[in-house]
Amino acid sequence: DIQMTQSPFSLSASIGGRVTITCRASQSIGTSLNWYQQKPGKAPKFLIHGASTFQHGVPSRFSGSGSGTNFTLTIRGLQPEDFAVYFCQQNYTTPWTFGQGTKVEN
Amino acid sequence: HLQESGPGLLRPSDTLSLTCSVSDGSVVGHHWSWIRQTPGKGLEWIGYVFSSGNTDYNPSLKSRVTISVDTSKNQFSLKMTSVTAADTALYFCAGLPSLWSQGTMVTVSS
Question: From the CB of residue B97, how many other CB atoms can be counted at a distance below 10 Å?
């Protein structure tokens, strides 16, 4: 299985600030990388596919980058609604696997 | 829109059975997954079924899992045999990556 490792496990950020979350794959996955946002009691919300392509309706303050084994999710100008847990997921090969999540808190 | 149905409390050795109903769309032409989430292991992909009936499973669960689709009812289902406390989790059905159900909590306890 491809292991997905996120860092940090959690971070504290302020409204208007910048957040960077890293996701590392145990082997190259090209750009077969999705990012999700999950709030308490809710299902994950799909944000980005192909490592950097937005899902319709995702605010432009979110951006994704990377390829191969190293990927980044950046939030510029953090908004109150962005406090959540963020997951990466590889869809390069099955079994599809997820990172353990990064909690963004105030 | 996806909605699961099925029992939330099981005894060890029971068979877990969940069904996911798809509304505002068709199961035809897509693949449909089951995913579970626990505080300890995070999100775990269980497997998927194509509308053709073809399946792929997580090797860690393959021996106990069957995922099937019923195109006439616009539903797909999960069966997991011989459950234990380790199978206690929040179960989602999904059309990855963009469609997710709200999740249903399944607890395995004697």
Answer: 19
